[in-house]
Amino acid sequence: MQYADITGWGKYTPPAKLSNEDLATFMDTSDEWISSRTGIKERRISHINTAHMAALAGKQALARAGVEADDIDLIIVATCTPDTLVPNTASKVQNLLGTNNSACVDLSSACTGFLYALQNATAQIRAGMINKALVIGAERMSWFVNWGVRDTAVLFGDGAGAMVLEAADNKCGLLEAKLGCDSSARDILNITNFGTDMDRYENPPGPLQIDFLGPEIFKRAVRGMGKATETVMSNANLKAEDIDLLVPHQANLRIIETLQSKLKLKDEQCMVNIQKYGNTSAATVPIALCEAVEQGKVKAGDTIMSAAFGAGLTWGAGYIKWGDNVSPKNDYVQEEQDCNKTAKELLAVAIKHCTENN
């Protein structure tokens, strides 16, 4: 049987940091208020678009895997903040990587998007339809944020993470997954005034913003991620003590801690970086997994559990058996994109517009 080994990992986190103290200069909030409720201390604000972030993360993953872009059969970009709807963002990523050989597709499942994409690419490799895939989660969530609405403005950030998958004979990669969607509650987390569901001419759409019913989402996230994880563990005959590392979606520290407690895992068995990046939607899992490998938290043969929850309401969990590759095949220094502005300077026009119209 053929498996889909994860052989390369990469990320791009924009250099401009927006701290809780920065937010407090233009909205009624504080570091204590944000930190105690979310675990977030700062988030990144991008000066480049989603495709460029995705391509930079992809380049790093390809280099570390020792794979050329021309060798990739499939590029999946999980995003709910695409540069364009037509053509798709994945085709732009392909172009930035300098190749025209791969199939390209965008996948929109919000925060669960990377797990959806990972399962899709893994299934194609295991079916023998492709040999190599580049799976990317990339989001520019700051573009949608209404900076006059505190409850959502403090949550989101920008970034991208990527993984290279290659066909392998040894049993590794994503071995079990459970994905789903609770569409009965899809309206409790949505981006307003966007899409063809509205009348474009008779009722011109208002400003974009993220509608977010926090308490209800918290309950459903804990339930959805927990149920999916239990299903995966049961199907894979795993016990809590078999898990070496939990890499959850980074939406809220309390959600992460609740899932960690259910699995009876120690702090060192749970990858947490929400304090640095906030919620980057589909990018949180690959960024966290990439950092876990970089920090030596992942060893060859480790059992990794990941879980996520997002708009839709999508949910999912996956069991990854890490392969032998825990060291980059090529040294790679992340290409930095010049940015001579602070996060607040990048957002100045958006902040002015939002705060004056709320």
Automatic annotation (TrEMBL):
Segments for region (ACP-binding): 250-254
Catalytic activity: malonyl-[ACP] + acetyl-CoA + H(+) = 3-oxobutanoyl-[ACP] + CO2 + CoA
Pfam name, any one: ACP_syn_III
Keywords attached to this entry: Acyltransferase, Cytoplasm, Fatty acid biosynthesis, Fatty acid metabolism, Lipid biosynthesis, Lipid metabolism, Multifunctional enzyme, Transferase
Cellular compartment(s): Cytoplasm
Residues at the catalytic site: C111, H249, N279
Domain Beta-ketoacyl-[acyl-carrier-protein] synthase III C-terminal: 234-322
Keyword Lipid metabolism annotated: yes
SUPFAM superfamilies attached to this UniProt entry: Thiolase-like
InterPro entries, A to Z: ACP_syn_III_C (IPR013747), ACP_syn_III_N (IPR013751), FabH (IPR004655), Thiolase-like (IPR016039)
Pathway recorded for this protein: Lipid metabolism; fatty acid biosynthesis
UniProt-listed Enzyme Commission number(s): 2.3.1.180
Domain Beta-ketoacyl-[acyl-carrier-protein] synthase III N-terminal: from-to ranges: 106-182
Function: Catalyzes the condensation reaction of fatty acid synthesis by the addition to an acyl acceptor of two carbons from malonyl-ACP. Catalyzes the first condensation reaction which initiates fatty acid synthesis and may therefore play a role in governing the total rate of fatty acid production. Possesses both acetoacetyl-ACP synthase and acetyl transacylase activities. Its substrate specificity determines the biosynthesis of branched-chain and/or straight-chain of fatty acids.
UniProt-listed PANTHER family: 3-OXOACYL-[ACYL-CARRIER-PROTEIN] SYNTHASE (PTHR43091), BETA-KETOACYL-[ACYL-CARRIER-PROTEIN] SYNTHASE III 2 (PTHR43091:SF2)
NCBIfam families: fabH, PRK09352.1
Assembly, per entry: Homodimer.
HAMAP family for this protein: FabH (MF_01815)
Domain notes: The last Arg residue of the ACP-binding site is essential for the weak association between ACP/AcpP and FabH.
Protein family according to the UniProt entry: Belongs to the thiolase-like superfamily. FabH family.
The protein's name: Beta-ketoacyl-[acyl-carrier-protein] synthase III
Organism: Thalassotalea nanhaiensis
Gene: fabH
